[in-house]
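Curious: can you check?
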Amino acid sequence: MALTARTHRQLAEKESAALIQQANDTHPGDTSAGDKPRAEPFTRSYLGARPSDAVGDITAVTIAQPTPADATSMARVHILSALDLYLGLPTPGDALGFALASMTPRKEGYWPALVAQGDPGLFVARSAEGNVLGLAHAVIAEDGTGEIGALYVLPSAQSRGIGARLMEAMLEYFGPSVVHVGTTAGSPAEAVYKRYGFKKFGPPTETPPPLGEYGIEAPQQWLVRPSAECGNLAGNP
């Protein structure tokens, strides 16, 4: 049965919570504030550059479905890419604090749980050495419409055509369907989506509460790409 992106997230977050709770049962007392416990604290070193971040030969980068071994790398790609975006906002607030204290413990559980579901709409970009440089999540809803649940590329690997290849993999997966995506209003990501025929759908919505709690102002903008049957709407990479 096809599921919405929200349902996929709910399932993954439920499994994520169970994995994190299992870790905390193994390491009693190691918890963070609120409902986001974690077994180990995350520090700035988690966000630091690693040899695996190197792109290498760009012509050798491949797009494929992820394996469980990719999951923790996918979480780090997501976090670093999002942090890079937040730091570039006019009001970034405590973006670093949000990344380490809130986002990292959640995504470190979320992506392994989602990959374990074997979703055919998940894609990763791998370097010649097999390192994850980017990821994408395409979801087809029960009504046949599509939603882009994620599109992230390591900051060190951006502007190399990797995001374009991930986007093309998703659009091929979606076929002629109408596709929706939500992104930070006015961000570089919004401009990228517009190059692929996405248009604004309604006014921006408020900053999600988890971001607002850290003083980050990031109103969200929904965009829609009409069915390909309405004409050639694909943009340039």
Notes: The mean pLDDT is 83. Residues 5-26 form the longest helix (22 residues). The helical segments are 5-26, 44-47, 71-87, 95-116, 162-174, 188-195, 209-212. The CA atoms of residues 151 and 219 lie 18 Å apart.
